[in-house]
Design brief:
The chain is α/β, with parallel strands linked by helices. Helix 9 packs across helix 10, helix 9 packs parallel to helix 14 and helix 11 (316-328) runs parallel beside helix 12 (339-355). It contains 20 helices and 24 strands. Strand 6 (106-109), helix 2 and strand 7 (127-131) form a beta-alpha-beta unit.
């Protein structure tokens, strides 16, 4: 999981912690403390499914894990080309880990493009399993290989396992009534079976999954199961794989509880359902499909039994418009999108600020600008979330730090929206959305009480004694206005984007009233109750690393490395980006140096510099990939020594 207990240097080469030689000439079994595996192939080779199944079995076995799916932006990039390579990286261990790992110990390459696209990430001595059937002259030329790397000595520094995966799969399925092309599609299951044997992964879950997935096509289900078993048996019998490996469950890494593997988007969806149940409000999602946020729409559409209503609108603006209407009608209203969609929704977010209604805007950030990199991660929407509306339109901003934390972040965003009657922007990103880790399923009594009181009658008495309802008469503590359900007798009130008169909500063009309303809306956001930030500083460091969002894992892994090497470095991480925790300035003042790693060009650093006049140093990366722990550790060491 993501606790901050000490552990071995996370990104070092996987250590052999034991070796067992079986009697009778059986194969050796080596025990490792952790492994990083990357499956890579053409976007039609099923690498995401293969990685997901290996991850599920690893989670059920009890290892801590972290994943990094990486796939092309094109729906179907040209087969066998570098832009068409899809990969799935999994880091699993017998101890607490935080990232998908810097460098794979094992690469499964289904074709030359997959090998060429990923070989640069492998350390010397890594194992490479290649599908030799795909290393044809034409396939090699397509990616710029003048000669086969399997024969020219360029892979001599690695442990190479040439395996004719396609041929072996077709041979294993010859008794099935399948064409060669249909049989070849199961080669990813053969590879999964082989890797499952190598690392002693459970198999029952995958076989049940295949039976369920292809329930309407039993022949296809049986063929995939046969290919999976054939891969396992190949590992057991071939002389090329003389050793298999064991990675023990991470029993000490997890607090007691029931766990499951979960991705960020799935955790967000579950968090939204839990929030609606805790608020005793129906959940309404108004959305338009966009990568990488669409999975939330897909998942929530499955939960009508919890009173969830999902609406796939014709565009982004219609999606948020419907959601805001649902908020006016008394629902917990949500809209999901990515950066380009937030731009389109900005006017309606401003309307929600003016109406002062609870609305959750979920932004799963991706590379930009414009269409940008739809399947790659980035943190570049922070300033858009803070200021991307006309006029003074302050909005709270919340950011989860890990895939599992997306569940809690959704509950926290709902708490703020419902308590303070305001739209809230939740900033996740593609790395969290598609990545996964173990998640402890919370007990119901651990969830917050989010129930709200709707207005039921008059709340103001005029000078003549008449009792009336004022829609903008505020709670003195939260500055939230009352939430009146349409149709409630006597609570009729104006709605719209034109400036409201304080209290009555009538249209007002009075300059003094506008100034008052602008300052009041800002004061409401500034007054939101958020927890203080805590700095993890066991050694009295002079340098603080401040992060937000998905940089938590790489930063924490880098900090662990530095501390293991004897360096004193402190770490703090922001969940609430607007408003900032009240003690943030005090924490920053304790340190001589503040370093802020971000997957943008320094957006949080800009805010910190402006607000606290701190000479914050940026360390930035915008290549569509998360930070590597080794890379961050080197940059932080340089900052410490400077």
């Amino acid at each position: 999981m993501t606790s901050q207990v000490s552990s071995p240097a996370e990104q070092a080469d996987a250590a052999v912690v034991g070796e067992q030689r079986k009697p009778g000439g059986a194969k050796d079994v080596r025990r490792l403390d952790r492994v990083i595996i990357r499956f890579a192939g053409d976007s039609g080779d099923g690498m995401q499914l293969t990685g997901d199944r290996f991850t599920s079995e690893t989670a059920s076995f009890g290892n801590d894990l972290s994943t990094l799916p990486n796939f092309p932006a094109e729906i179907r990039a040209p087969a066998g080309t570098l832009p068409g390579v899809s990969s799935f990286q999994l880091h699993f261990a017998d101890h607490d880990i935080l990232t998908p790992g810097d460098a794979p110990n094992v690469l499964v390459a289904m074709n030359p493009a997959a090998l060429k696209a990923n070989i640069g990430d492998l350390p010397r001595g890594a194992e490479i399993i290649v599908n030799t059937d795909e290393f044809t002259k034409r396939a090699l030329q397509k990616v710029g290989y003048a000669a086969s790397p399997l024969e020219d000595g360029s892979l001599d520094g690695y442990h190479l396992h040439p395996v004719p995966l396609t041929t072996l799969t077709v041979e294993a399925l010859k008794e099935f009534d399948l064409s060669r092309k249909e049989a070849e599609r199961s080669k990813n299951m053969f590879a999964l079976g082989l890797l499952s044997w190598m690392y002693h992964r459970p198999t029952e879950g995958t076989e049940k999954f295949l039976s369920s997935k292809f329930a309407k096509k039993p022949d296809i289900a049986a063929a995939n199961i046969a290919a999976f078993r054939a891969g396992w048996n190949f590992g057991e019998t071939t002389e090329d794989f003389a050793v298999s490996y064991e990675v023990a469950p991470a029993a000490k890494a997890f607090p007691v509880g029931t766990y499951r593997n979960i991705s960020g988007n799935l955790a967000l969806a579950y968090g939204l359902v839990a929030a609606s149940q805790q608020a005793d409000l129906p959940l309404f999602l108004g959305s338009y499909p966009i990568t990488p946020a669409s999975d939330i729409l897909h998942e929530l559409s499955r939960h009508k039994n919890f009173g969830v209503r999902t609406f796939q609108a014709e565009d982004e603006i219609a999606g948020i418009g419907a959601a805001l209407g649902a908020a006016f009608g008394g629902s917990l209203a949500v809209t999901t999108t990515s950066g380009p969609g937030v731009a389109l929704k900005s006017e309606t977010i401003g309307l929600a600020v003016s109406l002062e209604l609870p609305l959750l805007v979920i932004d799963i950030q991706r590379g930009g600008p414009s269409t940008g990199l739809p399947t790659k991660t980035e943190q570049a929407d922070l300033l858009q979330a803070m200021y991307g509306r006309n006029g003074e339109a302050p909005v709270p901003v919340v950011a989860p730090k890990t895939p599992a934390d997306c569940f809690d972040a959704a509950l926290e965003a709902a708490r703020i929206a419902l308590t303070y009657r305001t739209p809230v922007i939740l900033l996740s990103d593609g790395y969290l959305a598609n990545g996964s880790e173990p998640w402890r399923i919370p007990d119901l009594d651990e969830l917050p009480d989010l129930r709200v009181r709707f207005a039921t009658g008059p709340n103001h008495t005029l000078d003549d004694g008449t009792e009336v309802f004022w829609p903008y008469k505020r709670d003195p503590q939260t500055l939230a206005r009352p939430w009146a359900i349409p149709g409630t007798p006597g609570l009729e009130h104006r709605i719209g984007g034109i400036e409201k008169q304080d209290g009555t909500g009538n249209i007002s063009y009075d300059p003094a009233n506008h100034d008052f309303m602008v300052r009041t809306r800002q004061a409401k956001i500034d007054g939101i109750d958020v927890p203080d930030i805590e700095a993890d500083d066991p050694d009295g460091a002079r340098t603080l690393v401040l992060g937000w969002g998905s940089t938590y894992g790489p930063i924490t892994a880098a900090v662990r490395r530095l501390r293991a090497a004897g360096e004193a470095v402190a770490q703090a991480h922001l969940r609430h980006l607007n408003p900032f925790p009240r003690n943030l300035g005090e924490v920053l003042e304790r340190y001589d140096k503040v370093v802020i790693p971000e997957m943008n060009l320094g957006q949080l650093a800009t805010l910190i510099r402006a607000r606290y006049l701190v000479d914050a140093r940026s360390y930035n990366q915008v290549n569509g990939m998360p930070f590597k722990a080794e890379q961050l550790a080197a940059a932080l060491k340089e900052a410490i020594d400077d």
